[in-house]
Amino acid sequence: MDKTNPAITHTQSPEEAAYFRGYDDCKKSNKKNLASGILESYYAPVIGYEAQYQAGWNKAQEEEDKKTVRRAGVGPLIIGACLLIVGIVGLFGGFAMFFSPVSEVSGLGGYAFLSSVAIALSGLGLLIKGLVATFSGRDLDDK
């Protein structure tokens, strides 16, 4: 009985054992690499069952890649929210400046308003990208 995977019983076939060994080895490899920063490979396929071992390894790697994308989505989410807030605040300031008497003299009201729109839209774009990456595990930069 394998202690790392409680679903595995002593009645499993050699194919299943190779699959779960590949899965567990990949998980151990990812954990070790994150903790120590040392690249140590646990890749040791079972002779005669290399395809099943590789399938288990690939499944665990796919799960790890999804976690990485979700973690990477937090940065754009935070930056997008901040830019959106700054842009909205700037919109109010630019709008007020546009209708002030100073704007007629300086002509800066329209530029302040338009730059605030650009900041708010870029913030909204980053916010959407961060939300998609965080909650779906899919990176929008991938094609």
Quick overview of this protein structure:
The chain has 143 residues and is mainly α. Helix content is 73%, strand content 0%.
Number of beta strands: 0
Q: Give average pLDDT, whole number.
A: 74
Number of helices: 5
Uncertain segments are: none
Q: Which structural class fits the helix and strand makeup? A: mainly alpha
Helix content: over 70%
Give the assembly state of these chains: single chain
Q: What is the CA-CA span between the terminal residues?
A: 42 Å
Number of domains: 2
Helix-strand topology string: HHHHH
Strand content: under 5%
Radius of gyration: 26 Å
Biggest β-sheet, characterized?
A: none
Task: Tell me the overall shape.
Answer: rod-shaped
Please tell me about this protein's structure:
The chain has 143 residues and is mainly α. It folds into two domains: 14-68, no CATH class; 74-136. The protein is built from five helices and no strands. It has helices spanning 14-36, 50-72, 74-98, 101-106, 109-136. The model has no long low-confidence stretch (mean pLDDT 74).
Main attributes?
single chain; 143 residues; mainly alpha; 73% helix
Topology:
Blueprint: H1 14-36, H2 50-72, H3 74-98, H4 101-106, H5 109-136
